[in-house]
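Q: Hi! First time doing this. I have a protein sequence and I read that you can turn it into a structure. Is that right? Here it is:
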Amino acid sequence: MQGRLITWVGVLTAAVVTASSPPALGATESPGVVIRAKSGQQVTLYKGSYALVIGVSEYVRGWPRLNGVKEDVPAVTAALERQGFQVTVASDPTRDEMDRAFRTFIAKYGRDEDNRLLFYFAGHGHTVERGYGAVMGYLVGREAANPNVDESAFLEGALSMQNIEVYARSIDAKHALFLLDACFAGSVFDATRAIPHVIREKTGWPVRQFITSGTAEQEVPDRSIFRDLFIRALDGEGDLDGDGYLTGTELGHYLETNVTNYSRRAQTPQYGKLRDPLLDRGDFVFVTGKAAPPLAKAPAAASAPAATDRETVFWQSVRDSDNPALYRAYLEQYPAGVYAPIARVRLHALESIHPGTPEAPQAVEAATRTSTDSTRIPPSPKAATKETGGAATGDAARPTPSIKPLLEKLATLSGDARVSRLSEIVPGMGPGLTASDVAALLGNLTGSHRGQALQVLDPVIPNSLKPSEFSMLAGNVDTRIRYELLRSMRSKIGAPLTADGIVELYGPAVGGWRLDFLNLFAGHLPDRLSIEGVTTLVETTDIRVRYDMLKVLAPQLPRTLGRKDLLTLWGRDATGGWRRDFLNLFAGHLPDRLSIEDITTLVETTDVRVRYDITRTLAGRLPKTLSVADVEALIGPATGGWRLSFLRDLAQKISPPPTQNGIETLLASLSGRERTAAQELFRTSAK
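A: Yes, that's right. Below is the predicted 3D structure, encoded as structure tokens:
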């Protein structure tokens, strides 16, 4: 199966190499990675950090090109450089050039056991089932043949995972991480799920870790969700426990969870460690810096801790607890603290799982005294009746009070303080709030505070929200927060959605963000969308994103697309090879017959190679018979060998057989062997 295989994590230098030569590895030393242990002692995690990034996009023997790889490589390189890696890039290597890049890189940087190495591959991957029943995954080099045409030539041009295992075992460096973004099978690793907490312990042992973006049965899209989320993880989102460090296992868990979710299970990343007891005890580590304690000299034993140290000590004492009261206590003491956003998320999650958890007697008293009866909204009479199975009586029969008293309590609060108070009152709220009520509770919160508050209020946000109601709630937040809110509130958005409804949910999103939003709600769309509706959805996107969005929307397209529909859908920017890609995408929606005018219009703005590919793709939809003028129109400006290739495909369809003048017209630009071969075509046709 074809697909993309991306990403090993390793460490490289900042030299760029071409596919035709081995990497030029720089001699500059990478800066070390130093952290502070709980004792205050400074600990060197790594002496140097080096990454090898390999991208293959321009395949030449039957594999589709991968335009997205050209964007993956610089994006990943920049993210790794922000992490202190020196990055070497190998572009469009053959199998032998890829092998040489690995070996040269490992020889240069893999001998020092205190280094960390990261390997990232972006390109096609393929799985071959061997005769004895086993399967083997391969990284596809630039000149590898299509295995469906010539498997032997494919094997000569691809690098197997057995080779990758040999590379992994030949490294002396303590930690190496390999990331692979493509459909893939034949793993050399065992899946793992445990998330380590002790950074110093985990960095002391050797490890060879692997993360793949999908399995052999899955097709990984050219625009890589995996790459986007990998970069977001490095920027801090993947730090699941908020300790300021991202481990290889945390990264694998983050990618598995989020790629699976964003792709609607079309991609299910796998992660694990090499099957070797000597190489599976450690964990690769990135420093995210989001919550990591600052590097500082250890304080004297008798010294009183500084305020920031007291907060860290407080947080470390509650961070692994499943008691909501301890998180409330932390938030009361440090409402704007370094760890406050994490505490609110954990508190909300624990309260949804364990409602009514009693307060911990050790918690700070202030954590409970601000939550008074006057700020809690009791369940509605309707809810009480449902829960008791009979008529509501007593206190439970009282109607839900107006939110006006509550708004008065919140009137003077903003930012963290308002979010914290909302987290206290949500457990006492019953159903029955409207979107307008929730908006009033949010008040003038903006940005991340509004996003946090909406997560806290999620249990009382009504179901079947209209897109306009969501926009009211999500006002004043940036596109990323809006996306995260929609991801968590997706089940609350009413379905089906119209194209205008999806655009409303987009908000200010443009470019690639529109694709991300569309992936969230593709399942909410009606069975069919009009051409106008589809073009509305893909506006403000570049050609690559437009293609990926139309791929998502293909099932909703009208069953039959005419020439004007195609030109409208792919837009003005679709020229050259993009027209071929779009036509391949829409092949199932084309009518049984296309006119010569239709086809010549569709192949405009393409070079002769693409023109030929499109004509072959549409061969079954050509008129049953062609005139000399028709063939000349299809061939267009093609000369030499390309004109001969067109004539070989089309000569048999010319009817009635061409006259000598007609043949001369078709052969006018040919000479030598090509002309002789073309003349033979028409002699055969005449017979």
